[in-house]
Amino acid sequence: DQQVKQNSPSLSVQEGRISILNCDYTNSMFDYFLWYKKYPAEGPTFLISISSIKDKNEDGRFTVFLNKSAKHLSLHIVPSQPGDSAVYFCAASGGTSGSRLTFGEGTQLTVNP
Amino acid sequence: GAGVSQTPSNKVTEKGKYVELRCDPISGHTALYWYRQSLGQGPEFLIYFQGTGAADDSGLPNDRFFAVRPEGSVSTLKIQRTERGDSAVYLCASSLDRTQPQHFGDGTRLSIL
Q1: Which of B42, B91, B101 sits opposite A104 (nearest CB)?
Q2: What residues of A are in contact with residue B4 (Cβ under 8 Å)?
Q3: Per-residue pLDDT tens for B39-54?
């Protein structure tokens, strides 16, 4: 079963606007969530994380929101830049899965100049 | 550089052959993970080392796959009697400890002909 899902395979936004990437999970034991960015032929690059004891974490242009009751998290990028164009993966860990990460399928973000 | 290093970057071999993939983690990182990523999907967990020991090998698909980390630093993923379905990008990640974000290498693209 797919415990972490990213339902939008792609997202296109204009430069300077907000990008919102969404992620849903089913395992209520997950307690740590991360977002990674991936360029072609490179490994995933860590962006930002959030623990389940928080509902928001901010780092520069990136903010992650966690809604535990809905088992939903989102990544906001403001303002979006063309260099942000990449595949974004959300990942989760915790509970019986320990520290190993369970990833979503990814969302291709394209920021148009 | 100071990141996770994986060699080779590309490996092409024939079905039935044996392959070894190497991972050199970030210096001082005690936790090391292997993942496998197929086209259009997120990375899938294979095995986790804490120090020299495999703390969780539940993601290894079958007994043709084996990994070692004899001195608690470099790790080698070994695949025997390779099959075409083993073709994927094999990613290695390391972290300071199991509570910290994982940092990925650029992966080894394995192609089984």
Answers
A1: B42
A2: 43
A3: 989 999 999 999 999 9
